Amino acid sequence: MQEQEKQRAEPTAANSRRDDPRVAAPPRASEGTALYVHLPFCAAKCHYCDFFSVPDEGQDIDAMIAAILSEAAERAPRRPRTVFLGGGTPSLLSPSQLKTLLDGLHMITGWRESAAEVTAECNPESLDLEKARCLLDLGVPRLSVGFQSLNNETLKLFGRVHSAEASFEAYGAARQAGIEHINVDLIYAIPEQSAAQWRRDLERVLDLGPDHLSAYNLTFEEDTRFKRWLDRGRLEAAAEEIELEMFHDTRRLAASHGLEAYEISNHARPGERCSHNLNYWRNGEYVGIGPGAVSKVHHTRSGNPRAISPYLRRIAGHGHATDWSEEPDEYARLAECWWLGLRLQEGVDPAEVALTAAASAPAVEASVALATRLVSDGLLEPAGTRFGLSERGLPLADGVAREFLQRLQASAQ
Ligand code: SF4
Q1: What is the CA radius of gyration of the chain?
Q2: Of 47, 144, 173, 351, whose CB count within 10 A is highest?
């Protein structure tokens, strides 16, 4: 899955505590905080994926739902503004399992009355008319569908269990069921993919009329089969100039179909931006429930174990499964606000991030000095009170992020 990007976060602060039985549940989030629920099962493990997920065969999904509801009773915010079912593959759950989960979450949080946006991630092999109707009836009006590629050979290389035809059928079933908000996930910069092939596939998807598009370049994450294949020379990463051409083509073609790039990899029709993810990029608070899920409550970041048995054991023993927690210092908090916020088209207002990060004047001044230097380097540009990535800086966003993380951390010492 792609759209729930920020949930891949791992502990980073020097004061992280991990695998420590004294790690307590994080503070209870206030009413309205965003709620993420991680369903960790997939039909098969994709070779490029580093989200926490395992093949569903032989797994006790009912036990997982019961544990997630126990954790929600302990930690979930009341009346969340947004709810995101991610994973893993939430659409893999049967209609009765989805009902148990979503009704149970409603009993605990009242999400059906409070949430302005509710999303479930779906894969084509487990999304048909019945499933889409079930999700809509249960109160989920927004689906994120993982197409990833329109090339069946590429889908095999990815280790995915569906065909491109199945992706189109799943999309059609969702529309037929009455789902009005659909995101499509795609991956580009795939080995041996040409820019012309990417443009052709992208246009076919855009011609469907999705409300939202998440298009990510392929990355080779540690501990994935793809990274091992890359290291052994079995796969070759796309050339930088082709990747750059694909990046610009994506923005241009999406815009010509009415989808504006509001974040580096995300495009939406007016009124269809993903509020749940906007909250991540603005470094807001969120509560993650389920194995591997990450939370940020006040300034505490915490996460659950990325494994099924320890998660179930901890929930049974303590009612929560918090595995690590950390309190980033003000420089780390500011750096996170900057690198996340710069991913957005709207950019970063130093006065806003100072409030979000609860940072002191010297720390904010250090971050503005760094932003000003990056303006001189041509990577950022000022716009009123805000800073945003320049045309040149856009495809170099990861490098700009590293600048903020490393330089501001150095300022703290
Ligand atoms: S479907 Fe594939 S990409 Fe999505 S979470 Fe499962 S293994 Fe990862």
Answers
A1: 21
A2: 144
